[in-house]
Automatic annotation (TrEMBL):
Keywords for the protein's UniProt record, in alphabetical order: DNA-binding, Metal-binding, Nucleus, Receptor, Transcription, Transcription regulation, Zinc, Zinc-finger
Domain NR LBD: 113-350
Nuclear receptor domain residues: 7-83
Pfam families the record matches: Hormone_recep, zf-C4
Example of a GO cellular component annotation carried by this entry: nucleus
A GO MF label: DNA-binding transcription factor activity
Descriptive protein name: Nuclear receptor
Length: 350
């Protein structure tokens, strides 16, 4: 007699399956997906809006709505507990997202309070209050950003509390500008989608090339032309490198949160101990593991190498943009004499 092959094909995604789940010939992955969707009450919209998406495991981005409908059509039922644990453990990626949103909310409140006291232009937007301010106001806005970023740094990465204060200072100084670039692109994407015709400079302020330079820099100064040219150069160089990759990557909000953590591990030869280096590597590795679970469980992806590659490419380019930004801040400090009037800018950025 011929030996019967015990391998079946999943009736949902056609992947090989060696056993039935919920009394139906479906693979474990589809069974877990259906159980999770029922437990959480998740019913996302169809990706194509047709309700007829192809559901196969090799698909790069499985439509969760059509996958759920296909499970339900097979008569799959789940009558188990419908409540999640009262206090599920929070992953590092979720903590970073929670703290980043909190930081942005605090910055928005403080920046709005500042805006009321300075000259500004209002940018039309259907949902949010967005402004253009004079370059001289950037010092106060940067101080707000630095103070709130330091709170985020301590709350998002508690494992770094174990290293020395001097090492935390060095790491934060290196991290601040990179985090700022991520936040600005996150805000730009959130407020303007994939257009990027206006670049957010902070949580509620932006830079618009169509606004005359004399609004940003109304006073005469011998270094004005050098400063303006350096800022334009930064926007051109960083924009030409970063914007196409941001558009191509089409990052989800969770991926932006991951990027805010991953740029921590990209640095130019920080003089810190091996233990501190290990702490940073552990943060990177944990974020990548959380991303893998997010891709598989929330996005239904099983081939996510391209998305991970795009994130790592963005971290490298942001590191390069950091150098350009620091050069601008040197011009900025000379132009507005920030060295004497704002020691926080001098100590943390330069």
């Amino acid at each position: 007699m011929e030996k019967e092959d015990a391998t079946q094909l999943c009736r949902v995604c056609s992947a090989p399956s060696t056993s039935a789940h919920f009394g139906v010939d479906i693979c474990r992955a589809c069974a877990v997906f259906y159980k999770r969707a029922k437990t959480k009450g998740l019913r996302p919209p169809c990706r194509q809006g047709t309700g007829k998406c192809s559901i196969t495991r090799v698909s790069e981005n499985i439509c969760r709505s059509c996958r759920f409908d296909k499970c339900a059509a097979l008569g799959i039922t789940y009558d188990g507990p419908m409540r999640l644990r009262a206090n599920p453990p929070i992953t590092l990626l979720r903590r970073v997202g929670k703290e980043l949103r909190s930081m942005i909310a605090r910055r928005r409140e403080r920046e709005l309070e500042l805006i009321r006291t300075i000259d500004h232009l209002i940018v039309p937007h259907p949902r949010e209050k967005i402004f253009i301010v004079r370059a001289s106001a950037s010092s106060a806005i940067s101080t707000i950003a630095m103070e709130e970023s330091l709170v985020f740094f301590a709350q998002a990465f508690p494992s770094l509390a174990k290293i020395t204060d001097k090492e935390k200072e060095l790491i934060f100084k290196d991290y601040f500008v990179k985090l700022g670039i991520v936040v600005c692109f996150y805000q730009t994407n959130k407020l303007f989608g994939d257009l990027f015709f206006v670049k957010m400079g902070s949580v509620i302020t932006c830079h618009d090339d169509d606004v005359p330079i004399d609004f940003y820099y109304p006073d005469h100064h011998q270094n004005k032309e050098a400063l303006v040219n350096s800022i334009r150069s930064f926007h051109d160089e960083s924009g030409s490198a970063l914007m196409p990759l941001f558009l191509k990557s089409a990052l989800t909000e969770r991926e932006f949160f991951a990027l805010a953590a991953l740029v921590l591990s990209e640095h130019e030869d920080l003089v810190i101990s091996e233990y501190a280096q290990k702490c940073i590597r552990d943060i990177r590795d944990e974020i990548l593991r959380d991303l893998q679970r997010y891709y598989q469980n929330d996005m239904g992806l099983y081939n996510f190498a391209v998305r991970i590659g795009n994130l790592m490419s963005l971290t490298h380019i942001i590191l390069e943009s950091q150098s350009h930004y620091k050069e601008i801040m040197r011009y900025f400090s000379t132009f507005f004499e920030v060295y004497n009037t704002d020691k926080i800018m001098n100590n943390l950025v330069l």
